[in-house]
Amino acid sequence: MLYLALALVVLALFLLWQSGRTRRAAGLPGGRVIYTDTRAWGKPERPLYVPGLALTGKPDYLVEQNGKIIPVEVKSGRAPQQPYDSHIYQLASYCLLVEKSYGKRPPYGIIHYPDRDFAIDYTPELESALLDILAEMRRDERRENVERSHESRARCQGCGYRQDCEESLS
Ligand code: SF4
Predict the structure, then answer these.
(1) 77 falls within a domain
(2) Residue 114 lies in a domain
(3) Which end of the chain is more exposed for a tag (fewer CB within 10 A), N or C?
(4) Buried b (16+ CB within 10 A) or exposed e, 1-35
(5) Is 140 a pocket residue for ligand 1 (Cβ < 6 Å)?
């Protein structure tokens, strides 16, 4: 249960940050459709943690390929044409966690949808955009009031903070 909660921290923060913010398309790598052998995937035993960045998360799977460790994020919904930004940034955070935890930089990560797998290159540009987002999230966390940044009732209905949120639309 603790693992699940920790894994959800990264996801929740990204979804919250991402909601309504201007799309940061610049520097985001497109996804490459790939075939992967899921039999080689192993579940990580523990969450990964980078104290300096106060970042934690647990990829759904880690796969070893040619001495590299590749994180895999599993999504349940149908594959979009291209992975959503929030999925890419979540995967990028796992790439960062893998690099800091194992001392090996993953060249890419995998987003696994039921009907398609995408490889997302972990480029220096993606890493830099991720670090900007983490810094911005930390700034927002220190603020007492952060305005709602979207007009989506559905998003509020699915939000775990809805009961305590004065900005909720539902
Ligand atoms: S309930 Fe509040 S925190 Fe959750 S999505 Fe809506 S505005 Fe954002």
Answers:
(1) yes
(2) yes
(3) N
(4) eeeeebbeebeebbbbbbeeeeeeeeebbebeeee
(5) no
List pLDDT tens digits, range 125-164.
Answer: 999 999 998 888 888 777 777 788 788 888 888 777 888 8
pTM equals: 0.71
From the CA of 148, give the closest atom in ligand 1. Answer: 7
Residue 9 lies in a domain: yes
- What value does the mean pLDDT of the chain take? 81
Write the single-letter amino acid at 25.
Answer: A
Using CA atoms, how far apart are residues 29 and 16, in angstroms rounded to an integer?
22
The reply to whether ligand 1 has any atom less than 6 angstroms from the CB of 165 is yes
Decide: 95 in ligand 1 pocket, CB within 6 A.
no
Report whether pLDDT(97) > 90: yes
Domain that holds residue 109: 2-141
Could you tell me if residue 157 is inside a domain? Answer: no
Distance from residue 168's CA to the centre of ligand 1 (Å):
5
β partners of residue 69: 64
Overall number of domains in the chain: 1
User: For the chain, what percent of residues have pLDDT higher than 70?
Assistant: 79
